[in-house]
Design goal:
The chain is elongated. It has a domain at 37-80. A hairpin with a 2-residue loop joins strand 1 (52-57) and strand 2. By secondary structure, it is of the alpha+beta class. The chain has a three-stranded antiparallel sheet. The protein has two helices and three strands; from the N terminus they run H-H-E-E-E.
Length: 94
């Protein structure tokens, strides 16, 4: 009987651990803050805060502004994700 209770307890503990790990994997950082991708820093090399750049994303290039961050200058898209027009190579939206 004691062996059965111990096995059930271990199974429940394992289940809670798995759930906790799955939830922590879904949120990138505490408080929901995401780290910019490396390309966002690369796009602002040689630029200064306020400069406009074409930031490369998985969806293509979007217009972004270089802004200061704790880790250096980073490209921040000017429009929320999904609201940028799709640009072809060599095309600008200005």
């Amino acid at each position: 009987m004691m062996k059965t209770k111990m096995m059930v307890l271990m199974a429940v503990a394992s289940m809670f651990t798995s759930i906790s790990m799955a939830q922590s994997a879904q949120s990138p950082e505490p408080g929901g803050v995401r780290e910019p991708p490396p390309q966002a820093y690369t796009d602002c090399i040689g630029k200064k805060a306020g400069d406009i750049v074409q930031h490369t994303t998985r969806e293509g290039k979007v217009t972004a502004t270089c802004v200061d961050s704790p880790k250096g200058l980073v490209a921040r898209p000017n429009q929320p994700r999904g609201n940028q027009p799709n640009l072809q190579p060599g095309q600008s939206n200005s």
